[in-house]
Specification:
Number of strands: 9
Protein name: ABC transporter ATP-binding protein
Family: Belongs to the ABC transporter superfamily.
Shape: globular
Order of helices and strands: EEEHEEHHHEHEHEEHH
Structural class: alpha/beta
Organism: Paractinoplanes tereljensis
Bound molecules: adenosine-5'-triphosphate
Oligomer: single chain
Length: 235
Amino acid sequence: YAETPLVVRGLRKAYADGFVAVEEISFSVQRGQVVGLLGPNGAGKTTTLRVLMGLTMPTSGDALVFGHRLMPGAPILSRVGALVEGPGFLPHLSGLENLKAYWRATGRPEADAHFDDALEIAGLGDSVHRKTKKYSHGMRQRLAIAQAMLGLPELLVLDEPTDGLDPPQIAEMRRVLKRYATDGRAVLVSSHLLAEVEQTCTHAVVVNKGRIVASGPVEDIVGESPSVQIEVSDV
Ligand code: ATP
């Protein structure tokens, strides 16, 4: 699995109160793919992403990123960018200063950050020089996405990245993610919107109540499976 961006095998997560949020989740993300993790609220998407980013331990099963389990300090971390938990930005620094501070904390060379590419992708324009306390929710969201893209990681993991964006920004995000995956990079993105996954992703993994109900190329998933339509439409 060393060259596969992500392999998830038999993931199960039971929380301390005994609630099983994720059960028997297995899928992979290959280079060039934009994979949508699709399901209604509470389906287990965030839990799955938190496990694979090493933010919480699975009860059983595992998630391998380029053949490695992610954990704090793992060398493989530099090959992954993530927006899983909303990052807190320093309110009195500009967007760009926040990204620079974040990057400095990673200890990696400034030239590796590709600030210009990440900011262009995020489409923040001149507002990167404004203090983040003046940012709207949508601007914060775009700055967070730019932060996840710093270093142009080979695997990008985004939890509901279009949350808080307006329709033109959502359309732009689609273009961004498709473009992002074309250089052999890979994207995993969660969403509760069938239409969004249909328009953005090459593949979909549909989850409901912690289990996979369908997965495969997006054209096989959308429209052809009435059960999927029913499962995800009640959000
Ligand atoms: P959302 O879009 O609302 O975030 P989701 O698909 O990402 O939904 P999760 O956040 O993974 O779903 O939550 C799955 C289930 O696990 C939910 O029913 C939630 O209440 C439960 N859950 C999440 N965190 C915990 C926790 N720490 N302890 C107990 N149950 C939890």
